[in-house]
Design brief:
Blueprint lengths: L34 H10 L11 E7 L5 E9 L9 H10 L4 E7 L9 H17 L2 E8 L4 E3 L7
Amino acid sequence: MEKKVNTSASSRLAEIKLTYRNRVKPCKRPQVTCSADSYNVLKAGWDLGRIEFVEQFKVLLLNRANRVLGIYEVSTGGIAGTVADPKLIFAAALKACASGIILSHNHPSGNLKPSAADLQLTKKLKQGGELLDIAVLDHIILTGEGYYSLADEGLL
């Protein structure tokens, strides 16, 4: 007896399944109400041994009440830069069902001033967020001594 082999298109495709598990009750999650809150949450989650060594890009994922769902580390680069791939940023935000995100990266040089590339990337991500109904609330630049908020400076 000959066994029939299933060759339909559906048997050759990968199944996509999205899940999100958070073990912290919503009332226990930190809430972000200003740039200082964002900075404090980010700094607590940053490897301070690397903040003046290599550039990293991270995203705070927030629910509708601006409670932190998590911190997603997008990339780690070199001394002078790192890559922030919009697809990865929004994939994480969508998977977490985030309503808002706060972008962040460090400047190992200690200079808090945003570069032209920082401003261009922020604008691009803000436009992408508008299409997906995910608010880009701020972009924080961190150093070992402080932070710079693009939202506070009217650059968002």
